[in-house]
Amino acid sequence: MAHVGFIGLGNMGGPMAINLVKAGHSVQVFDLSPEACQQLRDAGAVVADTASDAVRGADYVISMLPAGKHVAGIYLGDDGLLAQLDKSTTVLDCSTIDAPPSREVGQAAAAMGIGFMDAPVSGGVAAAAAGTLAFMCGGEADTFARARIILADMGKNIFHAGPAGAGQVAKGCNNMLLAIHMIGTCEALEMGVRNGLDPKVLSEIMLASSGRNWSLEVYNPFPGVMEKAPASNDYKPGFMVDLMAKDLGLAMAIAEQSGVDNRMGQLAKELYSKLQAEGGGQQDFSSIMQTLHKEA
Ligand code: NAD
What is the pLDDT of residues 164-194, one digit of tens each? Predict the structure, then answer.
């Protein structure tokens, strides 16, 4: 059993922290939202008054926050959490943020002798609740060995992507590819349907052929093809357009910083930002399918 300080109890952090309580760890939590804290109190965690109180004496500190500024804000500076932690603590930031603040926190932790990993997740709210998230970790090998023990109680696939920041890069690569193949799948289905094909039959054909991909396999974007997919439930999320647009913004920054000509990714970002600007931000990201209908 480990002593865990958990900061950020939103849609993802809440169920992740609950899984740590269920696994028998001693979990102290903090969030700015009293409702989020109450949920964890009900689940058996100790709610702290401040982030500093939550991490006192912790073997592991885990954060699940919206963006880079929140992560830098809680960890860095004279009154930041890093300055208050013991060297034996392992710090895992599971938020999806841009690589530079992640590396900055990693470097500050390293300078203080504290093990830090960026450990963003893939899988969404359902996987967070089921404890089946995938973690993509960036940091030192010995920190990864310690991280793995606790991440296993929240996830199924735990990868060491490379040094500090590598987890965020892996997440950016994956989600850019996801956006591209989702849009490509929508275009292929729409083209087939407008030429008289049944979307179910066309999906079966592509699944058995070289167009096979994750969007077709488990998340078909055409309504009625897959009963449990968001497309068959008015595009209720699932994984929101707002989050995909955010992740694509982070991926574009990575491509730009590394000099990659990622035209497909840029176009995907443009299409998701347009859908977001038109008021579709809270819908599932497979609702990009509907934009093909609109522009017919
Ligand atoms: P959320 O907005 O539901 O939760 C964020 C929580 O952080 C909120 O409860 C907020 O009150 C809290 N918070 C903000 N600043 C704080 C501070 N200074 N101290 C303490 N608490 C603070 O967001 P979410 O959906 O849980 O996402 C969290 C992270 O996970 C994001 O980086 C997101 O990109 C990533 N992510 C989300 C999903 C998803 O499907 N929701 C999937 C994969 C990754």
Answer: 899 999 999 999 999 999 999 999 999 999 9
Choosing from 22, 69, 171, 228, the catalytic residue is: 171
Q: Which of 6, 61, 65 to probe ligand 1 with, by most ligand atoms within 8 A of CB?
A: 65
The DSSP output letter for 34 is H
Residue 1 in tokens:
């059993």
What average pLDDT score do residues 80-107 get? 94
Please state the ipTM of this predicted complex: 0.99
Q: What is the pLDDT of residues 22-54, one digit of tens each?
A: 999 999 999 999 999 999 999 999 999 999 999
**284 and 262 in a common domain:** yes
Atom of ligand 1 nearest to the CA of 33: 11
Q: 129-135: long-range contacts at Cβ-Cβ below 8 A with a sequence spacing of 24 or more?
A: 129/15, 129/18, 129/19, 131/19, 131/155, 131/156, 132/156, 133/16, 134/158, 134/159, 135/94, 135/159, 135/167
Residues 204 and 178 grouped into a single domain: yes
283 & 196 share domain: yes
